[in-house]
Write a structure and sequence with these properties.
The protein is built from 4 helices and 3 strands. The protein is an alpha+beta fold. It has one domain. A hairpin with a 4-residue loop joins strand 2 and strand 3. The radius of gyration is 18 Å and the shape is globular. The termini are far apart.
Length: 112
Amino acid sequence: MNIKYTQSFLDKLEAIPEESGYVLRYERGTFQSGYCILEQKKVVVLNKFLQIEGRVNTLIDLIPQLDINADFLPEEQRRLHAEIMANLATVENTESGEQEEPKNEEKREQDA
């Protein structure tokens, strides 16, 4: 995933939860992670003291946790949402220790 730490990229990320009915608010808070989710009201409160880089990273961490139906997103947000979810799956596979099956040549060397 190509992450850009620009206001334009941040705007695109913010549009994903907003298009799904979430309200994003930037406020002060004592939350350590940079955000707080109020599920029943579909409100996401982000730490207003974060710079653009922190806001982008926080939204990338946050979006997979939200109840978002990508089918209802505009095309640009749908592609970005798919990239975020694919990136999450890749990170989870790497962290769980799953590795790709060795290629035939490597397999033969291991068997020998």
